[in-house]
Design a protein that fits this description.
Elements lengths: L2 E4 L2 E4 L11 E4 H11 L13 E7 L2 E7 L3 E8 L1 E2 L3 E6 H10 L4 E6 L4 E6 L2 E6 L1 E2 L12 E6 H12 L13 E7 L2 E7 L3 E8 L8 E6 H11 L4 E6 L3 E6 L2 E6 L8 H4 L6 E6 H15 L5 E7 L2 E8 L3 E13 L2 E6 H9 L5 E6 L6 E5 L7 E4 L6
Antiparallel strand pairs: 1-2, 2-11, 3-7, 3-9, 4-5, 4-8, 5-6, 6-20, 8-12, 9-10, 10-11, 13-18, 14-15, 14-17, 15-16, 16-28, 18-19, 19-20, 21-24, 21-26, 22-23, 22-25, 23-24, 26-27, 27-28
Amino acid sequence: MTTATISSTTFRTTTTFVPAPSTTTVARAALKAALADVLPATTGKTLPVLGHVLLRGEGGLLTVSGTDLTIGVSRVISASVTTSWAMTVPAKLLADVVGALPGEEVILRPTSDTTLNIGSGRAVTNINGFAADEFPHIPAVTGAEATFVGATFADAIRRAAFAAATDDTRPVLTGLLIRLIRSSATLAAADGFRLVRLVVALPEPVTQPIEAIVPAKALATIAPLIAGTEAVHVTVGHSAVSVRADGVQATTRLIDGKYPDIERIIPTSHGTRFTADVAEMKRATKLAGFFAAAGDKSVKLSFADGRLTIAANATEVGDQQADIGGSFEGEPMSIASNVGFLADALAAVTTDKVYLEAQTSRNPLIMRPTTDGSSDVQIIMPMTLK
């Protein structure tokens, strides 16, 4: 028998794996998908074990879990388990190995509390890890509960999370405000330069009002896991929130603090309103962005009767402008916006047309969908016009 040792993994190139009494058999595709779901929650930046996944075989299930101490994600898949067991192994290494295995089934056999033997077809691998009790505990969450439609909740997270702050200067702004009242959910995010408020319907009313500030980064990790599920169950506890759907569970801490009064921030009137085609605005903004990136990253939006002009200028590169037709109400005016913020806002729009509103060039640019009765709104603070 020949062996080749690479890091902590030994590949036995000529030995066929023989199932033993203490084995777990799982479909390779299912294990690969579970690892892909859990991998974003593993970092290992502060503790080596945080770069590991916890594997737990019990009954007819294999549970794959990962955490970075901010978010914990677990995926449960069907498996044939002869004896209950648990241990951790390096997350990325396991994902790479499983992705490259030749067989349709994977047989997992812990040969000790820190070594996992993996067999598939004629390939056999040993990976060294840690004992299960070294893995951080992912707490159970009890508290107020609500149910979302998976696709609706995931889409709302996608359309709001980008506007949350990415630095910890004001920790509450790194989170999404989630407010549940009766049969509607409000999601809001702001970073001091822009604000998003979305309102989505719940399939069933909540029994009591619920409000929480959830880390936007954690929710962005969760969103792809629930997008294809029918029902998502959310439990909001005292200091954490749990999201459960179709074999996956994610838990993240809540952010303590008071979120800004978003209703007071959102303007209730405007002096100018323009109805614009979203696809045209995206093209014009992308073109302007090539030049704005070489300057101060600003684009100028000029509103006049029957048209909107989006323009950018960079002294050493050149300039760009494009006219967009549409309906106009109010006084002609111009307002400057960060081109990245404008592009992000347009990417989050789900309607073909939007209302663009402003009071003056020194007031925020307001973007609303043209859907009747919609409470969704985006706000972008203006830049100084040159």
